[in-house]
Write a structure and sequence with these properties.
Elements (H helix, E strand, L loop, with lengths): L1 E6 L2 E6 L11 E4 L6 E3 L14 E4 L11 E2 L1 H10 L8 E4 L7 E3 L6 E2 L4 E4 L8 H10 L14 H6 L1 E4 L2 H40 L16 H14 L16 H5 L2 H11 L13 H10 L1
Parallel strand pairs: 5-9
Antiparallel strand pairs: 1-2, 3-11, 4-10, 5-6, 7-8, 7-10
Length: about 290
């Protein structure tokens, strides 16, 4: 964002948000002023393979995984004799979704001519790091609305404003830090999504089950429904004996589903005789007696 102030024929531009150590106006430039638009030598279909040595990025795989390759010999020859990006140059999509950017990392790779271009920037007046963020926000000088291709003359005539090299470095360093934070958060989000999917599959397949506060498994829905049918069928008609090692106070949690748990316990607890057994296990006592 910039604030424009007009004074006769002079137009000074200042950003609305700025680091306090910098002052003065930003200079308006055109992308074509900082370097020529370059592209790789054309690669024909019969020169590519689906597997190979050097990744060949077409507009469809730009910024993704390469799905085509060229030979090492062809790559070495074309890289030597024809234009080729330097490490740190900003590659720009000139077709499809125009204006997408990728920073060339210096690894062996080749790029589709005319569809993927870059500005041959010498970094004297504009750093590539600052240019990267400028290319995210510039409005290309088009006529008649949406364009299907980013022609060289459109790219070169695109205007932007820039400060001193020192301020460019400060801005790009700050924005880069934000990008790193975003990438970290996105990675965490993806890991949480994977964890959620894994847990969901285990929960719904009953490989993983929650336990109540007494570390007991909840009754599954089939057993709970069957238990409810038994109690409902015998309630007020027949006697029912239930033996449990769990205290009655824990039954509601073990049954699990609140509505059914309420219905079962309402039929069982209020009209029942309760016998609470205390003391040590008879098996333990009998075992002690036999040893003697």
């Amino acid at each position: 964002m910039t604030k424009i102030q007009k004074d006769n024929k002079n137009v000074a531009k200042f950003p609305n948000l700025r680091f306090p150590e910098f002052e003065g106006e930003w200079e308006e430039r055109k992308l074509g002023e900082i370097g020529d638009v370059k592209m790789c030598k054309r690669i024909f279909n019969d020169e590519t393979t689906t597997v190979g040595e050097i990744p060949f990025f077409k507009i469809g795989s730009f910024g993704k995984e390469a799905d085509a390759f060229i030979s090492q010999d062809l790559y070495t020859d074309y890289k030597t004799r024809f234009p080729f990006p330097k490490k740190g140059d900003i590659l720009i999509s000139a077709a499809g979704t125009i204006g997408r950017t990728v920073v060339y990392d210096g690894n062996d790779a080749y790029f589709q001519d005319s569809n993927i271009v870059w500005i041959d920037n010498d970094n004297k007046n504009i750093t590539n790091e600052f240019l990267y963020y400028i290319l995210q926000i510039v409005k290309y000088n088009t006529e008649g609305g949406t364009i299907q291709r980013l022609y060289n003359n459109i790219l070169k005539s695109t205007k932007f404003s820039s400060p001193s090299i020192q301020e460019q470095e400060k801005i790009s360093s700050f924005l880069s830090l934000l990008d790193e934070r975003i990438q970290t958060q996105n990675k965490i989000i993806e890991e949480l999504k994977l964890l959620k999917n894994t847990i969901s599959k285990k929960l719904f397949s009953r490989q993983l089950r929650f336990k109540n506060e007494n570390n007991e498994n909840y009754i599954d829905s089939h057993k709970r429904d069957f238990f409810m049918e038994i109690i409902e069928d015998r309630h007020g008609k027949r006697s029912t004996i239930i033996a449990s090692q769990l205290p009655v106070s824990a039954w509601h949690d073990v049954i699990g589903e609140q509505t059914i748990a309420d219905a079962i316990l309402d039929r069982m607890v209020h009209n029942s005789m309760r016998i609470d057994l205390k003391g040590e296990s008879l098996r333990k006592k009998n075992a002690t007696t036999e040893k003697k």
